[in-house]
């Protein structure tokens, strides 16, 4: 494994070194997928023994899932109902509603006598803090970061700057310690909605400033875990040294460096048949699918969540995958709740959490530089005016708004430019591969599959206890380039319901034509997966319900399905099989 040189050039042949600079249209349009070198073949990665994979022949085919779906309104526009979520009232903070009862955890911060409103600087500061990849830090930087963490850990628990309190910030906003202002029966939940990216940006901002102040170094910048680059696709060494203040023992012992991270990880799904190189190709393909493919704010950030709304309307692409998978991959499965990273209440106790999120934050910046008119922040005032409160490095309580976080330079920091090898790692259709690499495998045509569907109907809603396939009609076929630019074709898995305490997972395939081999993330047929990070009560069986969205315009082009009236959607349960209820499946055009 050590001999594997993790350079991006070995994966994507047309890879250049543009750094994070604006990629050209040519790069985005590039149809070059991750290639593996001639000493390895595609077939090697297809395994029949993987625990999370089902025999394709077990797939049930059925029709349905098309009823009762009023179109969700599109809100990525200036129209707004003037109902932004407001910063919580700390004096009303209570024990978190959504933590396992076996765990006693308090996450309320101290109450402050006054709140300061954050005012952004008038200009971008001339000197920015530069966040660097965690695997490239020099000794001086690592020492500095270690000392800052040591001091943060040494602060008394009731000091709002202490590491304990930093972890509680996440618990409070994510596990139901705050009620919405004006809606005392509804919790604030910053995940699974359009607040995911800005909330964590603000949390990291204060965390970084506090660390800097503890070492009297205002230039201190939080390193990011560069998990989107082959060289960064493992737990960074600085976090894995047991003598370091950056260490956390509550991590998966089997995922210590140099184990390559699986950006599509599902609990317990370690697959020894996938070698490092294949894993890296899968990861780069996932990055392409989750960052290049979603071209609108709604698809990238998540669905609107306004005052009075129930939590968890729906995640954006980056939160769903790989963010959630990284949490599950990092937590220790031997702990009762996969702590620390594997449960929201405990995530902030792992210093790795902040670097994991720094990369999420960095990719928000990168996404906006990719080609496409709609790759912008929301202009909806309910998003822009949403507020949170955090303690700063002077122990002052500060109220911040989402609108002041959209430009990181105004927050005083930026990211070191790094190569983005995944820009060239567009998944490829299996159809082409199978027919060219294994002529003895019979590939039925789409029509053949549709014929099969005339077998008994699968009625929605259903419990996902087996892989299921269903034919879903498209609103319009053969759309022009302009129509495609105007509206994305979106596959919506409606009303996905499960107990909040579980980490459920299922994969979604499109036009998976009864293949004999497993669909992988570098296949266009792999639309993505859904993996939840638990946040709920262990004994209450409280359920959460959400929609899961997949952008499929480009995917259908790659599958040569432009002329088809319908697509075949397959859902494959991977964890907590039989514990997810699905209300239906629909395809909509959304602008
Ligand atoms: Cu607030 Cu990565 O979770």
UniProtKB/TrEMBL annotation:
One of its GO terms (molecular function) is metal ion binding. Residues 519-541 are annotated as: Disordered. Binds 2 copper ions per subunit. GO terms for cellular component: chloroplast thylakoid lumen. There is a cross-link at residues 174-191 (2'-(S-cysteinyl)-histidine (Cys-His)). GO terms for biological process: pigment biosynthetic process. Belongs to the tyrosinase family. Disulfide bonds join 93-108, 107-171. PROSITE patterns: TYROSINASE_1, TYROSINASE_2. Its main location: plastid. It comes from the Eukaryota. It comes from Morus notabilis. The lineage of its organism: Eukaryota, Viridiplantae, Streptophyta, Embryophyta, Tracheophyta. Its cofactor is Cu(2+). This is Polyphenol oxidase. InterPro entries: Di-copper_centre_dom_sf, Polyphenol_oxidase, Polyphenol_oxidase_C, Polyphenol_oxidase_cen, Tyrosinase/Hemocyanin, Tyrosinase_Cu-bd. It holds the Pfam family PPO1_DWL. It is found in: Plastid, Chloroplast thylakoid lumen. Cu cation B binds at residues 323, 327, 357. Cu cation A binds at residues 170, 191, 200. Keywords: Copper, Disulfide bond, Metal-binding, Oxidoreductase, Thioether bond, Thylakoid. Residues 191-208, 350-361 form the Tyrosinase copper-binding domain.
């Amino acid at each position: 494994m050590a001999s594997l040189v993790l350079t991006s050039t070995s994966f994507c042949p047309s890879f250049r070194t543009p750094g994070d600079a604006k990629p050209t249209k040519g790069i985005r349009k590039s149809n070059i997928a991750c290639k593996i070198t001639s000493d390895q073949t595609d077939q090697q990665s297809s395994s029949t023994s993987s625990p999370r994979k089902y025999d394709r022949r077990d797939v049930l085919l059925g029709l349905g899932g098309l009823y009762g779906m009023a179109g969700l309104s599109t809100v990525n526009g200036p129209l707004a109902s003037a109902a932004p979520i407001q910063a919580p009232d700390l004096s009303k903070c209570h024990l978190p509603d959504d933590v396992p009862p076996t765990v006693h955890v308090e996450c309320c911060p101290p109450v402050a006598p006054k709140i300061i409103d954050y005012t952004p600087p008038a200009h971008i500061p001339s000197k920015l803090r530069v966040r660097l990849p965690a695997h490239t830090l020099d000794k001086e930087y690592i020492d500095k970061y270690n000392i800052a963490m040591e001091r943060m850990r040494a602060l008394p628990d009731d000091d709002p700057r202490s590491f304990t309190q930093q972890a509680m910030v996440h618990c409070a906003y994510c596990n139901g310690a705050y009620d919405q202002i004006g809606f005392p029966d509804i919790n604030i939940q910053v995940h699974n909605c359009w607040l995911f990216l800005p909330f964590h940006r603000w949390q990291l901002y204060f965390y970084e400033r506090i660390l800097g102040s503890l070492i009297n170094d205002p230039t201190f910048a939080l390193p990011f875990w560069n998990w989107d680059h082959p060289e960064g696709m493992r737990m960074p060494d600085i976090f894995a040294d047991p003598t370091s203040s950056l260490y956390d023992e509550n991590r998966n012992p089997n995922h210590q460096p140099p184990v390559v991270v699986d950006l599509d990880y599902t609990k317990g799904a370690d697959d020894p048949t996938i070698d490092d190189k294949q894993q890296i190709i899968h990861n780069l393909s996932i990055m392409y699918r989750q960052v290049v493919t979603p071209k609108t704010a709604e698809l990238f950030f998540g669905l609107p969540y306004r005052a009075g709304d129930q939590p968890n309307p729906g995640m954006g692409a980056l939160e769903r995958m790989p963010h959630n998978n990284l949490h599950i991959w990092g937590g220790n499965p031997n702990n009762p709740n996969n702590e620390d990273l594997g449960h929201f209440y405990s995530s902030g106790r792992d210093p790795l959490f902040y670097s994991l999120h720094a990369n999420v934050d960095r990719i928000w910046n990168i996404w906006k530089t990719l080609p496409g008119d709609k790759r912008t922040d929301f202009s909806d005032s309910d998003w822009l005016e949403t507020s949170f409160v955090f303690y700063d490095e002077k122990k002052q309580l500060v109220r911040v708004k989402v609108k002041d976080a959209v430009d990181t330079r105004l927050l005083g920091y930026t990211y070191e430019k790094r190569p983005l090898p995944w820009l060239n790692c567009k998944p490829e259709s299996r159809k082409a591969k199978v027919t060219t690499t294994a002529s003895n495998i019979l590939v039925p045509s789409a029509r053949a599959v549709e014929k099969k569907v005339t077998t008994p109907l699968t009625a929605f809603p259903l419990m996902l206890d087996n892989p299921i396939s269903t034919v879903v009609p498209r609103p319009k076929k053969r759309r022009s380039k302009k129509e495609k630019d105007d509206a994305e074709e979106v596959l919506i898995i409606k009303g996905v319901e499960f107990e909040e305490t579980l980490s459920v997972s299922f994969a979604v395939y499109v036009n998976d034509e009864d293949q004999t081999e497993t669909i992988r993330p570098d296949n266009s047929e792999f639309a993505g997966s859904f993996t939840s990070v638990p946040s709920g009560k262990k004994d209450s069986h409280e359920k959460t319900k959400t929609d899961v969205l997949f952008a499929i315009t480009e995917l259908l082009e790659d599958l040569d399905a432009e002329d088809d009236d319908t697509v075949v959607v397959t859902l494959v349960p991977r964890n907590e099989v039989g514990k997810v209820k699905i209300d239906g499946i629909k395809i909509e055009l959304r602008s």
